[in-house]
Amino acid sequence: MIFGTLPSGQQVERVELSSGRLRAEVLTYGAIIRTLEVSGVNVVLGLDTLDDYRTRSRYFGAVVGRYGNRIANARFTLDGVEFALPANNGPNCLHGGVEGFDSKVWTIAERTGSSVTLTLTSPDGDQGFPGTLTASVTYTLADDALRIDYTAESDAPTVVNLTNHSYFNLKGGGDVLDHVVQMEAEHYLPVDDDKIPTGEAAPVKGTPFDFTEPHTVDERYDGAYDHCFVLDGGAIKVTGAS
Prior knowledge:
Radius of gyration: 19 Å
Helix content: under 10%
Order of helices and strands: EEEEEHEEEEEEEEEEEEEEHEE
Number of helices: 2
Largest sheet: 5 strands, antiparallel
Oligomer: single chain
Distance between the termini: 39 Å
Shape: globular
Structural class: mainly beta
């Protein structure tokens, strides 16, 4: 099913998935999860049109890459060679650069009624990154859950950090301050003014980042959640309301 057409003339497809009480829509543009419905309630943020995703999106539902999050000063050194990247977040490179994986049209490699696999080939030098990288993502609805599996292969040493950028609201609307969160994470990564990790793994105890016991977001929120949590091998549990 065609969702829209890019200015280049390239078409973007929409794939519908279902399993039990779950329904999802996935776009080939950015490998975006546009909707995820649980018993008819959409629990992820999405946009109405392709133009909205091109001009208004804050990476809603997309696969970000080659490198999710920020690379300081838009450069890194690998095997003694420095690579310069586009700076699209102050002095830093965010989510793969100006034209990251979120703005590429992925190819449908395989699909069933409840799953779809999308692939993307990023050529050597794409956004400054070395090596030709072939990435894939598989979305599967099963056992009342959404599963996401990634693969990435490169023909040269490179860096890669793929992730999904969905914004969840388990109530389907309003704010998320009454969502109850618990995670097995005794440490988090502090960041500097440019949101680059300082290199320290700091204890969460006594900070707004302590969710080792269940708390609502509102109990802990200080307006500054844009950090990595160091998971201790356990689960993250979120419920829609206290």
